[in-house]
Amino acid sequence: MLIKKGQPVLVGTTSIEKSEYLSKLLKNKKIKHNVLNAKYHEKESEIIADAGKYGSVTIATNMAGRGTDIQLGGSNGSEEEKDKSLNSGGLFVIGTERHESRRVDNQLRGRSGRQGDPGKSKFYLSLDDDLMRIFGSDRLDMVLKKLGLEEGESIVHPWINTALERAQKKVESRNFEIRKTLLKFDNVMNDQRKVIFEQRLDLLQKSDVSETIREMRHDLILDIIQENIPEKSFIDDWDIETIQKELKRIFNDSSPIEKWIKDPEIDEEILEKKLNDFFDNKYEEKVERFGKEITPSLEKSILMQVIDQNWTDHLSQLEDLRQIVGIRGYGQRDPLNEYKSESFLLFETLLNKFREDTTRTLFHIKMVSQEAIKKLEQNSNESIDRNHPKLKEKRINIEFDRNDPKTWGKIGRNEKCPCGSGKKYKNCHGRLA
User: Fold this and answer.
1) pTM of model > 0.85
2) Cys-Cys with 425: which of 157, 187, 238, 430 at CB 3.0–4.6 Å?
């Protein structure tokens, strides 16, 4: 009837899939129409311009084309074309279902009757619509069958509209609570982001980060001692073997700790000072080999890389944690409190990892001579960047560490993974490569 009158029609749908399904139905009926959704956004202005033309039919998602007026007769139409659209009744808006938000429904209704022009809107509902399922369509279906209504028969009653608005209010209230909760989760992440970015900015503004590197090293030694030496314990209770393994893993060197513990005066504080002095000297020797003109930029570069990489990994962990704590709500535990406490523990781990990764990388770096580099290039056909003026005579290479993928170099996808899992690289660490 509307097409026969030439009245312009806008059909609103809730998704791209539904707009395309409806388009197929109209094609089967040989009804000429335009489709406006996110897939055809480049034609949006053109489609909107034609949507008010006499005899036009436009299918759109409820969100498409918002902010642009549909003018009767078309945006570039003549007064005669506008009069034809006006006389046909103006824009007729058809809603194929009710949206979860009343605001979106009202925006669709508002496409008709703009600026005093005539227009009309009508919404159609099915018991299979998402909102109707929230409303309780199963119970309604049973009632309607008892009343003797047949399949496909239309139902028009004011209390259905009232009940649907109540359902929409419930959904809107739930969505509002979800957004509020998400904002609280984001606030936790933002607090951590501020701390990291302030530290990062502070380090970027420093020309020399050697004191920061030194503090990290000393904090790391203190952590190892506290983890393996019980408070106010005798030497026999000290886990010297684990201390040595950790020192070797991080500092790539063993200390004379077995000799030191034979001193009857030894205690945790003396041991800490001896280890600090020992590895401070080891690091100074390494600095001398590197060259004091190279070391500051090298330290800063490694420190920034460690912060950036670990922060990226930390964000992924927080996102995973957010998914996990959501499930805990079913166990009567507050997801937000769970997230706050566990994200704090993850943040502490992050700060510890900054110290360890920076220290370990700096102690595993080795100087490589020009002759060794040439030999390596000949054997592996791998080119090494020679453009850095400060590193022209002295090159740096990182010793292989199976726990650090950055030290593995190039690996074939079918080779065994260097981590020692026994799997092929493509099925292990190479899955994300």
Assistant:
1) no
2) 430
